[in-house]
Amino acid sequence: MISVCLATRNGSRYVGEQLTSILPQLSVDDEVIISDDASTDDTLGIVRSLDDSRVKILQHKHAIGIVSNFEAALKQSSGDVIFLADQDDVWLPGKVEITLSYLRHFDLVLSDCEFVDDRLHPIHSPEDKKLKTQKGIVKNLIRNSYMGCCMAFRRSVIEKALPFPPDIPMHDIWIGLVAEMYFNVSVIPDKLVLHRRHAHNASTTGMSSRLTLGRQLVNRYKIVKNLILHQRYAV
After folding, report:
1. Run of H or E residues at 114
2. Running DSSP on this structure, what letter comes out for residue 29?
3. Is pTM beyond 0.70 here?
4. Which one in 67, 85, 228, 235 has a CA-CA gap of 20 to 30 Å to 97?
């Protein structure tokens, strides 16, 4: 069984298109967990209009933030395999099939993606040449390539990664690096997602950071500290 965990927040512009790209790739026994972070637009109305019993909605009355929102979705999931999804992306045909073929041999996989604009036109910039999806704890602490929209993993990974430490800067790098510590990780070279870049992206992974150097260093310290503590107290 597959669980797709999708966190929403005022995503009415794109969420219908994203779900339309996901649902045909799932079986009747799979599920999509929508955790909504107190949206004030018609996000949930659009989700409900799809009238698909596989879609389960978790609605928060007050905003809890992106990390806690994904954590809530993950805690509600019941699948043997878990995909993370962003509300404004589009899954390319074959994403699920290709990913599952890798998960027969690995515990977490990270695919490539195509950066696109609001209208799904490819974006090419000088910084793209510097970006490369890769595994490795040190490499990803220097430049994180664990983009949640490109990740899928076995349930054993999230059982190890939850609960999230309260001060981690982002959920996807935490899950990826926990998997690096305890499980087998692999990279899928195929581009399986159209990842929209726009001014309102909740995460800047794969983009030039909007954070100051000081804040970036603080975030890396928090990740390293929590990884050390996690290993020390792991059962």
Report:
1. strand 108-116
2. T
3. yes
4. 67
DSSP code at position 41: S
Average pLDDT over residues 153-181: 97
pLDDT at 202 over 60: no
Helix, strand, coil shares of the chain, percent, nearest 5, are: 40, 25, 40
Dist. CA 24–CA 158, nearest whole Å: 25
Average pLDDT along the chain:
92
The average pLDDT across 206-228 equals 85
pLDDT surpassing 80 at residue 208: no
Distance CA 183, CA 179 (A): 5
Contacts of 194 (CB under 8 A, 6+ apart): 89, 90, 91, 92, 113, 114, 116, 120
Q: Each residue of 75-91: pLDDT tens digit?
A: 999 999 999 999 999 99
- The type of residue at 167 is D
Rounded to whole angstroms, the Cα distance separating 135 from 149 reads 16
Return the structure tokens found at 180. 């690096």
Rg over CA atoms, the chain: 17
Strand partners, 82: 3, 153
Angle between helix 171-182 and helix 213-233 axes, rounded to 10 deg: 40
Question: Are 18 and 83 within 8 A, CB to CB?
Answer: no
pLDDT of 35-77, one tens digit each? 999 999 999 999 999 999 999 999 999 999 999 999 999 999 9
Q: What secondary structure letter does DSSP report for 122?
A: B
Give the pair of three-digit tokens for residue 155: 């349930």
